[in-house]
Amino acid sequence: MNIHTYEKLWLVAAMLLIVGFIATIAYGSVGLGIAMVSDQEETVNPSNLGDDERFSDPGVEQVGENEYEVTVIAQTFMFQPDPIEVPANSTVTFYVTSFDVTHSFSVPGTNINTMVLPGEVSKMTVEFDEPKEYGIVCSEYCGPGHHTMEGQLHVVPEDEFDMTDLSVEADDEVAIGDTATVNATVENGMLEDLETTVTLEIDGETREQDISVGGDETAETTFTLDSTDPGEGEHDWTVTVDGYEESGTVTVVDELEDETDDSTDESAGGDADE
Ligand SMILES: [Cu+2]
After folding, report:
1. Which pTM does this prediction carry?
2. CA of 114 to the centre of ligand 1 (A)
3. How far is the CA of 130 from the centre of ligand 1 (A)?
């Protein structure tokens, strides 16, 4: 049988096209690392997220040297937490659920794009190599404020990332001659130890205390102030740790108002006339 040269050419071209199509589909489904969202996660009770071990405190947690877990709650019309901050060169696993209706958790520019259903937990793992700021959007229509539902995902340079938290408790008012205390609590959310310095500035004077906070632990440090030295009046203080800052005012008074004796304990029933 004689096949015409052109016909042979068309046959070969058609074969090549078919092989090309199959190769494209194969590369697209396995070569790009696109994975289906896992449906192996346990379900949660959407009306009781406050008591859920994972979702009662949504946020970022370090679970390995360069590994982080982020829990996110989507609700009309916001994402919690917002913004989400993770370091570059990290592997981040997101666990997302909804508080109310069907939403989505989509981060344009990444492979993150999942539906978020109340009761279900959507899990995705993503690698972030470079620092970059991403937007998070909800791409499932979820109500009249749907178009305003957005969040921020900040991938920050590794050396700028920390999970330090500072909270300060201080006396508001002390009598002159007494001692005022400023108590700073430093929380280290990272797994590595944190060596840092707590600085207290009051009336232009600076005091420092070095502290060491273990991984995933908190440490307290207390500054005591002799109130006779600054004297009566209002004194502003500022506590700083690694760029975190809290400030307040301590008032030194001549004499503290006596609050204890005024409220005598009369019988609770009142004096009803009959
Ligand atoms: Cu939504």
Report:
1. 0.71
2. 12
3. 28
